[in-house]
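@channel sequence for tomorrow's demo:
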Amino acid sequence: MATPGFAANAYASIKGMGAGNLMRKPLASEGGAAGPDFSALISKALDATAEAGRKADVQTASVAGGRADIVNVVTAVAESEAAIETLVAVRDRVIAAYEEIMRMPV
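structure tokens (generated this afternoon):
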């Protein structure tokens, strides 16, 4: 199970993904108003989660080869787990929002 510190770091990294650099370019018909690009936010979150998994895999291989400490593996796996849990929680909220929208009367 991930510690609160790992979860806090995962949430902070996800929060940082949505700031500034993910603003989409406005369309000409929007009159210059820019908002966050949801698909870019999700894409970046998926990439960050995959990178955490790759880091855990590299650390595991390093320990198997005797080139790394087991503490580094445990840390990388816990960070990967926290990133996956965060991504799953976001996915669940998106699905719940979609279901709520579908229940709205037209």
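heads up for whoever presents: Residues 70-103 form the longest helix (34 residues).
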